[in-house]
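Morning F.,

Quick status update on the modeling queue. The single chain you submitted on Monday has been processed. Sequence for confirmation:
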Amino acid sequence: MSPTALSDLAGRLIALEGACGDPPAANVASRVCARLRAPLSRLAGVAGYRSLLARALALARAGDDSLHAVRLRADGTLEGLDAGGEGIAAHLLGLIVTFIGEPLTRQLVSEAWPAWGERAGGQP
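Structure tokens below.
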């Protein structure tokens, strides 16, 4: 999956999550990452999820100075992400694709967002 396709997928997931609006003030990109936590933790364990998110945050920081204040908590949640964060979600998806491939990544995304799988036919 190309970087553009990953960014597009992250944007679509952020839009889906934003449409939920629960709670509307919470950072949507952070909620996207959190929603991937359950299916990814079943596959790679909590430590595996946290490691991938930490790496995604480090990669996203390299291209966005505003993310330097963001911290990864021990429980795997992101602290200090007030706006933006699409890069974190895109990098997390990219790392997942790298480690388990596109088909399993699509399956994880469909599990976390059943509406995405139904609407997009599971295709990014």
